[in-house]
């Protein structure tokens, strides 16, 4: 994370604002419901520009998606999984393009997520996929809720917890909250429940996005309010 963000601190007037940024990102990742506008104000007060804090939060989203996938599958993925990951790379690449834009003293996307995230959420709730649509939508929603966020897409009986039975529910909770805890037994249980390897990969991706996007949903209002509290309009 430090390497990924280092080039964005050239505007900062202080010698080492990075600890405040990393403290904010740590809370966003581990305890997102504990974030407050004061946390964002502390980062900005350390000499970090609003734009830099936006970049940090979006970069954190990318890491939080990718890290969950790596925890679940390891660093090596199959050719089939590489093909399935293309939509995710498109989404994360879109976030990267947002990061690359320079809009000094302006909020990157206001109170709404980037369109790339919105499109990915729509795809997760869409009809295409080996995992049933209701299961994909429910996995995304439950993961988002497990990090303490509120779904933007209204839950229905098809996309609520009713669509997730064990062992899928346990798998969602593990990936969302403590992806390091994933074991071969989780995958074996999903296979025994009728999930194909492709469906398991889709399910994992939906969970990773739900948790990471949920963390951003909680962090962004704090950034907006903190920026205003620091004099940004």
Give the biggest sheet.
none
Low-pLDDT runs of 5+ residues are 1-15, 102-109, 154-160
Total number of helices? 11
The fraction of residues in strands falls at under 5%
What series of H and E elements makes up the topology?
Answer: HHHHHHHHHHH
Mean pLDDT: 78
Shape: elongated
| Cα Rg | 18 Å
Structural class: mainly alpha
Layout of secondary structure:
Blueprint: H1 2-5, H2 18-30, H3 37-45, H4 50-73, H5 79-84, H6 86-100, H7 115-124, H8 133-146, H9 168-178, H10 184-192, H11 197-229
Characterization of this structure:
It is a single chain. Helix 8 packs parallel to helix 9 (168-178). It is built from eleven helices and no strands. The longest helix is centred in the last third of the chain and has 33 residues, at 197-229. It has 233 residues and is an all-alpha fold. It has one domain.
Summarize the structure.
The model is unreliable at 1-15, 102-109 and 154-160 (pLDDT under 50). By secondary structure, this protein is mostly helical. Helix 4 packs antiparallel against helix 6 (86-100).
Keywords:
single chain, 233 residues, mainly alpha
